[in-house]
Fold each of these.
Amino acid sequence: MTATVNDQRTGREVVGEELFESLAHFVAVHNGQTPERAERIADQAVAFLVTVATATVPMVPSDDVDMGLHALILHTKEYAELCEKHAGRFLHHNPRPGGGPRDPKLVAASAQAMKASGFVVFDDLWTVDGENLAQCDSDCGRPYGQA
């Protein structure tokens, strides 16, 4: 039997246990998520942020991942440090004025960009209106990190 090496990274590995646990706890408490789901959301939020730094496509999170991004942003010192380390600049939160639905094509492209960057992607957290957008093989709101 041969062993395979899984070279995919996780958001948890990027930030370390202390910050990761704080993010997951925040998502669980403030967004009513189970601890297990909150951990997965926190993981995807960190992976999303790191991918934004080098993405060549507009990055738009799913609703689930956005919960994790808000938790990360509220850890202001750590968020600023992550931005500087991975993007070389502060990545501003860029909500769509007046709200409105997320563009499914941009959300799907974001999940694909994360996969291309070597991150584990939890497909079930990448949905819009119940439609899973992370499983397509192609690159099928406003982009994150731009002013």
Amino acid sequence: MERFIFLDFDGILNTGRYQRELQTRGEMGRDAIGPLFDPQAVDALRMLLERSGAQLVITSSWRTAGLAAIRDLWQSRSLPGEVADVTPFYLYGAYRDSLDGEPFMGFTPGCRGLEIAEWLARHAEPDVSYVILDDEEDTLLRQASRLVRINPETGLTPEDARKAMVVLK
């Protein structure tokens, strides 16, 4: 069975704790791409990927740079796993006037839950296993049991990764 991890960056891999730690040490908290990711959060993601065999789909606003840029980021920072895709981005919403080939009809505001639902409708089987890792509850009601809400101060922890494994089964 396919498994997917829908991953936000800010608050999940880019943490308040790590940015303050870097500042205290007098180190730059960013590179040419953006804020540096917390090594502890990256290790927790590595553990989750190794144990689940899930594929990554990026939901972070960083995805607006495009899939190629996200994959370059992943490679340049030696991050775990591979990025399979990014969700559609509807900051200002999208309008659908037909149900042909589209999961929604009408105005769909920039809700990550809707973006995830659209990605799943286009790319996954109906019974797919997935988890959403985010520091906000920007999901649909039917996705609530799939959300592991992350504390943006600490980012993804081993405990969060274990919770995600339970969701992925």
Amino acid sequence: MVKIAIIADIHGNLPALEAVAADIRRHRIKRVICLGDLVGKGPQPAEAVDRIRELCELTVQGNWDLGINEPQDKEAGLWQQDRLGKERLEYLRTLPFCADLWLSGKRVRLFHASAKSVYHRVLKKADKWERLALFENTEATGGFAGEDGVTPDVVGYADIHVSFHRTFKSKDKQGLMLFNTGSVGAPYDGIAQASYVILEGLCDCREPGPFAVSMVRVPYDVSKAIAIAEQVGLPNLERFRYEQQTAMEG
């Protein structure tokens, strides 16, 4: 059995990321995958990118990672670009869209927001048909593990900053499983603690076996994150402070 930590939505919050990294070490987890949005919102985008590159075996692209490479006309975006520099911006621009892996006979697909785009948001309260669309192959995903016509039966995503785990079925698809990682650096579910997921199963195994999805919450020093934002002169500081203190979207 292997354990894989799935993290996402760091948003330049290094204290939260380091708290999660310490918890991952405590669980003796060696494999870590990031589902994007390393930057934006928080005060340490460059440091977050560098730490993720050390920590993770694979990182897929989030909407902020792609969007920060676009021309910026607002102070917050320009500030983030300046902090990141050309090399990190290029790294973010070229991240892959999704990751596919076999785990205990399950076809697991991981992406940031949806099968369509890093910008296409699927909320927790989305209807059944929106959720089922997450399991479809698209031009962005291709077939599962490069196999035409093969689709995932487990999907993990991020983007909405609210963790959940759900199973359901449709007429032609049985036993589908969907989970959201929540956010490491900017939780929006009212719990001011970093959120991530642990997958456990038989690695690269196409035969059925034990499989688990665990939702993990980790406390971190919110006051330290805010203090860093104040020290570096983060644009939109009040919004960052509000989101950190309340764990609600500003």
Amino acid sequence: MALETVFIQEKLSHQFGNNVLNFEMKRDIFTFEATPATIHEVIRFLKVQEDLNFHFLTDLTGIHFPDNDDEHQFAVVYQLHNWMENIRIRVKTYLPENPELKTITDLFQCANWMEREAWDFFGIHFIGHPQLKRILNMDEMVSFPMRKEFPMEDSGRTDKDDRFFGRTVSNKSTL
């Protein structure tokens, strides 16, 4: 029997109650949200349950939503894959202005670099990460360049317009 999204939703809702929400199909991928306090356990549950088998972490990324309310400034998005049934799911969690989240490197070793990248570019701190440090930017860098509070290019350029990339121009210094 094929793994159905209704079955996944029922199992998660039964196990985690109101800590999992907003289930939907989005661009042909079953998507839902989990609270930051339970995201680690939700992902562990998806991995270890024999009737779910989401054993592969395809991707983990951060997103900055500067126009959202204070509790939803950042998101961490996890893409998981069940190879046996060839089903992918997307799990999101939203974080406040100073984003912190428990690492999942104990569940997926490949999360090590993905979490380091989210730290490097968005400043999302993964609690318990074995070596959370810059991975692509210089160690001396004090800002997080993918946050939309920083302009994409220097202010002297006329061929790029930050508004086209979802960024608003502000008077904040770019460090």
